[in-house]
Every structure is written in C-alpha cells, then in structure tokens.
Amino acid sequence: MVHAPTLTPTTEESGPQPVRRARLRRRRGEELTKVLFVAPAALAMLALFGYPVVKNLLMSVQDYTLRTFFTGQAPWVGLRNYTTVVKDHLFSQAMVNTALFTIGSIAFQFGIGLALALFFRRRFPLGGVLRSLLLLPWLLPLIVSSATWRSILEQDSGILNRTLMGLGIVNDPVPWLNSPSVALIAVIGVNIWIGIPFNVTLLYSGLAEIPVELYEAGQLDGATGWRGFRYITWPNLRAVASVLLVLGVVYTIKVLDIILGLTGGGPANATQTLATQSYQRSFVDFKFGQGAALSNILIAISLAFAILYLRTTRRAVDE
Amino acid sequence: MSDSVARRAVYTAIGVLILAMMLFPVYWMVNASLQPSGNTLTAGFLPLDPTFAGYRRALSEQGHNLVTSVIIATGTVVLCLLISAPCAYALSQFRSRWVSIGLLAILVSQMIPGIVIANALYTAYEKIGLLNSIPGLILANCSSGIPFAILILRSFMLSLPASLVEAARVDGAGLVRAFVAIVLPISKNSLITAGLFTFLFSWSDFLFALTLTTKGGVRPVTLGIYQYLGTQVQNWNAVMATAVLSAIPAIVLLIAAQKYIAAGALGGAVK
C-alpha cells in the first residue's frame, strides 16, 4: 500500500529536509521495485490469457478465415458464426459426446481413485513407493499414452483382443477404435486410465488430513468399516472431493490430445467433442471465426463450473 | 490397531498387483519397442529376442525432433522461472489487495482451453512471424508453466519467516538483493520442483506444436509421434521406441521430484 509519509509527519520523519527527501525517494524506489517484481508475470498473463480470450470473442463475430491473412479483411458478421456451428448436424452429436466423455471419465476416475486411495491408506511395506509409482501414467505425455493404447487396442494384432480371444471372452476381434459404437467407450477408457493417478493422489492427501482421533472416537461408537466411511471418512472428504470433481470437469471438457491421437474424432465422428470440433474448424478448415465461436461455447460451460469451483473452495476454506 | 505381519504382506501383494495392472501399458510400450519384427501380431509378452532396430530407426528419424523438444522445454523452464519467481515472492510476502486479484486471475486462467490460446496466438504469430519458430513455442508453453510455477513457488515462499529478509534489509540490502541473495537460495528445492514440472509440461505439449507449426522445420517429438501414427503404424517398434524415449523425462521427474519434495518437507520440519 502506498503511504505518503510527508502528509502525516511523525516526530521520527520530520527531520531536516534533505533526509526526508532521501527517505521519500527510497520509499518511492521501493514501490517501483515491488511493481517490477510482478510486472513480467502480469504482462505474460495478459499476453497468454487476456489477449486470447478477447481475440476469440472478436474473431467469433467476424468472418475470419484463411483469406483474412492475405487481404487483412475480416468483416463483422454478428452472431452468424454461432448460428452456423450450432445448426451444424455435428453440433448435437459433439455436445452429447462431450457430456458422455466428461461424465464417464470423471465418474470412473473418481470411483476407482477413491477405492485405491482408501486401500493405500493402510500401512504396509512398500505402500509409499507403490503409490508414487502409480503416478507414472499421469506424467507421461498424452500423445505417448495415445500411441501406446493405439497399439494395445489395434483390432487384429493388439494385445487386448489377443488376450480376450485367448481367454475365450470374445470370439471375434473387437474393433475398439474402428467402430462408431465402441470407439467412444474405448477413448473414455483410456482417459480414465490417465486420470486415476491424479484422483488417487488428491484423495489420498485428503484422507491423510482426517484426524486419527475421529476414528478412535468412532470405534467406541461402533463406527467401523462401512459405517466409519459413511459417518467419518466421507463427510471429512467432501470438500476435497467436490473441488476434485469440478477441477475434473474443467480439465476433461477441453481434452484434445487423447482424442486426436487415438481416433482423430472418427470413425464417422463418433468421438467428436466440442474441443475437437473447434480444432477442426480453425486448423483444418481454417474458419477461425467458427472455431472461436465453438471454443467460446466451451469457455462458457467451463466458466459455469469455474464459478461452482470458486464457490466450493470458498466454502471449503470457510468450514 | 496393529495389523499382523501376514495381513500386511497380503496388502503389499495386492498393491503390487494394482500397480502391475495400472502400469501394464507402460510395460507394453517398452516390450513392443524391443520386438524384432515391428509387428505386434507376433509380439510375445516378454522381449525374449530383443533388438534395438526400433531405437536406431527412432533416433535417426526423430533424433532431430528430440533435440528440438529439449531446447523448447529448457527454454520454457528458464523463461517461466525468471518470470514466476519474483511474482510468487510478491504474492507471498507483499501486503496488497492486488494479491487476491492476482490469485483469482491465475485460478480463472486454468479454465481457458488451450485451443483458445492456440487460435489467438496463430493469428498473432502469423503477423509477427513467430509461426514455426522455437521462441514462438516457448512463449506458448509458458501459458501452462507460469501459473503453475507461481502457485508452487508461492506456497513454498509463504512459509519463509519474514525475519530472514528483514535481517538483510537492516544490513542495507535492497529488495532485489535480498530476494536474489536470500530468498532464491532458500527456495532452491521448490524452484527445482517447479522447473521439473514446467519442463515436463512443455516436453509433453502437443496442441501448440500441432497448431503453431505449419511446415517441417521446427517439429517437437510429440508431433513426430503423431505423424508416425498417421503414416507408420506398420512399424510399431519404431513408434514405441520413440514413445519410450519421450517418456524418459516423466520417469526422471517421478524419481527426482520425489527426492526434492521430500527434502523440502524434511528441511521445513527440521527448522
């Protein structure tokens, strides 16, 4: 906070004029230094987040295409880009796929993550090492995971179909990534695998925060096993869980790498989401205005969850 | 609540089993990269007859892209830490209403999809000539690195006792000198942690590589793998060898960051 020491002279500060000036100069220099600590980061955030958001809003109401780069012309078209992308026959399918992808991914990531976190809370030899090695799928580049799963899911030679057929579970190879009816399930499955480690880690640290005394007291009242989870673990985990779920939505809804790497949105658009649609409009069709309109719809959905997130964290802090 | 030795051994066995299931794809990646034919149809569960032909091919075709990725990721780490460290210190120690505004901005920035950033940067880069350039990709990768580094560094710097810096200030050091000579050395572990994660983020970047490069000159290895997937899926051993090479930073981080996070926590406990 900037104070003006000359306006409120105390006995200390009312020294001879040159000393006061020097002190004031030093104070001003210090305020300037403080600004310089933050300025590079503030500029970077403006350039990397502020500018793109504003630019996307502008582009979404312009006829911004490849031609624009040559002519410099991007005529204003009002909301026409939005009506074009929403009326497109793929839009409703992309919306449904986005919802299925997000809800399916998060439900299983969270459920399996919670089960594993509860398991690893038990003390046993190597527990900590095993739990940290579990993080590996989350740290791998997404395109590396996509490539690996592509080889595992290959219809004729992939190890999954060979194993399933060897065990007699299926008679014919399952076209995991080549059939419109199965591809979305396969892509969700891979995304669940990628997300489990993050869920385990956050839920485990949430569990570690619950005081042991609660369980000791609970044991006296007969709250063990399922009742212990129902009346002690879950209520104390709820703040972490709700933050995790909302973060999950915000991250999952914009996933692009995994889908592009596994199916490219196909077959027959079975795995197209809002994010892949936005990518295709902008960087395959070079209709940047329409791509921007779609990604703004994506931001609006994310923002709704962001507000929910901020409200949840505030409540979690208040409690 | 003392579990018997036998029961704990059973838990360890279950834990190993869970880990084996979760990491099977990673094992399969390594296994497939060592298979001779390059055709997974004949690939056994064990690389009994390992060959490095896949790696030779990966290095000759993707070696250049691996170097490009190293340069981009290193550049991103340097730029991110230079920008984030002073800001994290300011957000942890300075008293101002701007602190909560800054933190809110960082939180909200996490909600912006990468495609929005790519969309805008593409049109801007086209004008100023940053398409197909390493500085262009470094700058774009900072969008994931800077907010993350600020949050990591700030949470560490919040625990720094104010008396440390005050002592130096009494001795006549300015804000900048106190920061460089005292705060940064003490924050070494958190700087390394933030740096490792930032390296991994930009090493893993695929979206910006895909959208902000239009011709072959600058091509990170993630894009190399993607192009393999489009054209080379008959040669899985070369694709998987590239995948293994691209997984090395993740494995190093898993081992190294563990050490530094633990060291940081221990250091905090001792003082």
UniProtKB/TrEMBL annotation, chain A:
Superkingdom in the source lineage: Bacteria
GO cellular component: plasma membrane
Gene3D superfamilies in the cross-refs: MetI-like
UniProt-annotated stretches for the region Disordered: 1-21
Subcellular location: Cell membrane
Membrane-related topology note: Multi-pass membrane protein
TM region(s), chain numbering: 35-54, 99-120, 132-152, 182-204, 236-253, 288-310
Principal location listed in the UniProt entry: membrane
BP term (GO), one: transmembrane transport
Residue ranges of every copy of the ABC transmembrane type-1 domain listed in the record: 95-309
SUPFAM superfamilies: MetI-like (SSF161098)
Keyword field: Cell membrane, Membrane, Transmembrane, Transmembrane helix, Transport
Family (UniProt): Belongs to the binding-protein-dependent transport system permease family.
PANTHER family: BLR7065 PROTEIN (PTHR43005), SPERMIDINE_PUTRESCINE TRANSPORT SYSTEM PERMEASE PROTEIN (PTHR43005:SF1)
Name of this chain's protein: Carbohydrate ABC transporter membrane protein 1 (CUT1 family)
UniProtKB/TrEMBL annotation, chain B:
Matches recorded under InterPro entries: BP-dep_ABC_trans_perm, MetI-like, MetI-like_sf
Superkingdom of the organism of origin: Bacteria
Keyword Cell membrane among UniProt keywords: yes
Protein's cellular compartments: Cell membrane
A cellular component annotation (GO) from this entry: plasma membrane
The ABC transmembrane type-1 domain, residue ranges: 66-257
Membrane association type: Multi-pass membrane protein
GO biological process, one term: transmembrane transport
Principal location class: membrane
Sequence intervals crossing the membrane: 9-30, 66-91, 98-122, 134-153, 174-201, 236-257
Entry keywords, A to Z: Cell membrane, Membrane, Transmembrane, Transmembrane helix, Transport
Family: Belongs to the binding-protein-dependent transport system permease family.
Name of this chain's protein: Carbohydrate ABC transporter membrane protein 2 (CUT1 family)
Organism: Kribbella voronezhensis
